[in-house]
Design goal:
The chain is mainly alpha-helical. Helix content is 61%, strand content 1%. It is built from 19 helices and 2 strands. Helix 6 packs across helix 8. The longest helix is centred in the N-terminal third of the chain and has 16 residues.
């Protein structure tokens, strides 16, 4: 097991925190190999050396989950607001360490390397590339390529960008942000793990999602209860017509979602009338027991959504 000085561990940057987690978990052989690769890359971060180290990581370090406690996750968020590595594996974490170092290097254009890697990487490499986005230097140079990455039809890749990742909310303009939220619903990806969903709500997104909901209804297909969260702040007029439809025809989870969405809606007589119809949920909303995380959990528990580790597969049904 590698030994580190107190000064090393107390250097509370995401890079050093991530390194400390990796080295405390690795056996001696893996630790020695990874330290050797970091030392080598510090001297030579050429494309050839980088790709050899980056590609060998799963074989040398394995793919176990990164073992993190509640204190570790709190430390992560304190070091970088919104940083949540709870779903990372050891190989993803190690690859991100290499990528952070490369982004800080003056010897290579990280934006170009990011683009090249995006073009040639396998799924595991792409998960690392995207999961580390909030931690790289000069993130504004990666916006265009990351937005292109959302075109993928592989949910794990999409979710590496969209879920538990502060990069989209911090870096995307309105159009790519709205497209990401819409595609999440379209391909059956949960909205609750998207950071900044409340703060980035906007009238155009509400309009787009209403159109999407009506297309689903016209095809007699289920509309995710999470959708109403993005419409709530703009829920007037025709939006309240849709809320009324859910109140009249929806299942319990859908009604709970509308009750939550109404909390953010502009004041109006129609809002109050709808609220009165949903008053049974007031107590659990006011206590915090019913929130958007609870809606997502209820969807999973009641088979409205099916998910697995890292959300490799998500299916919405009714």
């Amino acid at each position: 097991m590698a030994k580190w000085s107190l000064g090393f561990i107390m250097e509370n940057t995401p890079l050093k925190i991530l390194e400390s987690w990796i080295f405390r978990q690795l056996p001696e052989a893996g630790s020695d190999w990874f330290r050797g690769q970091l030392d080598l890359l510090a001297k030579d971060d050429s494309t050839k050396v980088f790709y050899i180290a980056f590609g060998m990581i799963p074989r040398k370090l394995g793919k176990d989950d990164l073992a993190l406690s509640a204190d570790d996750l709190a430390e992560a968020n304190a070091a970088r607001k919104g940083w949540n590595p709870s779903n990372w594996s050891i190989d993803t974490a190690a690859r991100i360490v290499i990528l952070i170092n490369l982004s800080n290097s003056q010897n290579a254009s990280f934006a170009e390397r990011f683009k090249d890697l995006h073009r040639t990487a396998d799924v595991g490499e792409l998960l690392a590339l995207y999961s580390g986005l909030p931690l790289y230097a000069s993130p504004e140079t990666l916006v265009e390529q990351t937005a292109l990455g959302l075109r993928t039809n592989i949910k794990a890749e999409f979710e590496a960008i969209a879920h538990r990742n502060s990069f989209p909310s911090e870096q995307f303009d309105e159009n790519p942000w709205n497209n990401m939220v819409l595609k999440s619903l379209f391909i059956g990806v949960m909205l609750e793990p998207i950071l900044g969903l409340n703060e980035r709500a906007n009238p155009e997104l509400a309009r787009i999602l209403r159109d999407y909901a009506h297309e689903r209804w016209a095809a007699e297909r289920f509309v995710s209860p999470e959708l109403w969260r993005c419409i709530g702040p703009y829920a007037e007029g025709v939006y309240l017509d849709d809320f009324q439809r859910v109140v009249d025809e929806g299942i319990d989870t859908e009604k709970k979602a509308v009750a939550l969405a109404l909390k953010t809606a502009p004041a109006s007589e129609r809002k109050e009338a709808l609220h009165a119809q949903l008053s049974e949920y007031d107590a659990v909303i006011d206590s915090g027991e019913l929130n958007w995380t609870a809606i997502a959990d209820e969807m999973l528990d009641n088979s409205l959504a099916i998910t697995r580790k890292m959300n490799f597969e998500v299916e919405l049904t009714r």
